[in-house]
Amino acid sequence: MTPEFDPDETDYEVTTSNASNKVTATPESADAEVVITANDVEIESGDSVTWESGENEVVVKVTGSRGTTTYTVTVTAE
Q: For a disulfide at 27, which of 6, 15, 32, 67, Cβ 3.0-4.6 Å?
């Protein structure tokens, strides 16, 4: 993933040649809630996602004591 994860950075890119990958998001705080969508479909953390050829968008919304932060990962399937 580029750049390496930083909680203050909200946009990331990754390239994969796999047809599917597991998508996992783990918040630092046990009180935080995480909602993951891949190509506009909500998924459970740890579930597999099948990628469409080209760019796919994964959005991770983390809601905790400091509010909500939305991270976007563009996954390019080759």
A: 32
The answer to whether the CB of 62 falls within 8 A of the CB of 27 is: yes
pLDDT digits (tens, 9 = 90+) for 5-43: 998 999 999 999 999 999 999 888 888 999 999 999 999
pTM: 0.89
Residue type for 57, please?
E
Buried (b) or exposed (e) across 59-71, using 16+ Cβ within 10 A?
A: ebebeeeeeeeeb
Burial class (CB in 10 A: 0-12, 13-18, 19+), 29: exposed
Angle at 6 between CA 64 and CA 65, to 5 degrees: 10
Distance CA 61, CA 74 (A): 15
